[in-house]
Amino acid sequence: MKNRGIVKLIFLYMSLILGATLILAPVVWMLSTSLKDPSHLFDFPPQWIPNPVRWDNYPTALNTMNFAITFRNTVYVTFMEMLGSTVSSLLVAYGFARMRFPGKNFLFMLVLATMMLPGQVTMVPKFILFRILGWVDTFNPLWVPAFFGRPFFIFLLNQFFLTIPKELDEAARIDGCGSFRILTRILLPQLKPALAALTIFGFMGAWNEFMNPLIYINSQAKWTLVLALNAFQSPLEPGAPVTHLIMAASLVVALPCMIVFLLAQKYFIEGVVFSGMKG
Hints:
Elements: H1 2-34, H2 57-64, H3 67-98, H4 104-113, H5 119-132, H6 140-143, H7 151-161, H8 167-174, H9 179-187, H10 192-207, H11 211-216, H12 225-230, H13 243-275
Helix pairs in contact: 1-13, 2-13, 3-7, 3-10, 7-13, 8-9, 10-13
């Protein structure tokens, strides 16, 4: 029995190592390619360790995509998107989970039904609305809708609210707390895992958003990082390989998402587990 347990443990660790290797291989290849000289990009067999190492690929790539301006634009849009979606979804989910009013179940099902509506269906009506408002070629279409709540976030927070005993609300009301104070003083401190999950989802969604900026942003000075990466142009002569520069820029763009997930993964996993969302 002891030997069988050791064999199972070895098999488990080997499976985890194999899975991690398969997942990390593209990232390692991206890093390797970003440091290569253009003359070694298409060597066969492939060169995993660059020789020579070209660190100057990174400054060249970032200068080409006007990194300072596009990074500032992306940070602004991402922050406003996260703020709007988190605050509005929190208030709506609190109302659905803790308050009683006519038609609550119907409205909640209606909110969930909007998750099944493809974004392509509302793309044209939203563009017409934002054009009438004069918001085309501005950042407003990218973050203002977030202040009206995200159905997925509302569902996630509602599920988490259901795990918190309502007796806490009743005890707080006896002590004279109103609904808003119950939310901020009693429930909000217990929502850290769910809010961390929302923060990661919101950050990654806004940071990597491509379609909406492509539709509404026309000026190059208002491009986000993803748009600049998509329109990447070579600073070299026409026809010169730019794969190494694209890999360098892509790695820099993806780095913030990796850092945010690594810092908040504990709360993220806990929030997903307690909310009942799996798969």
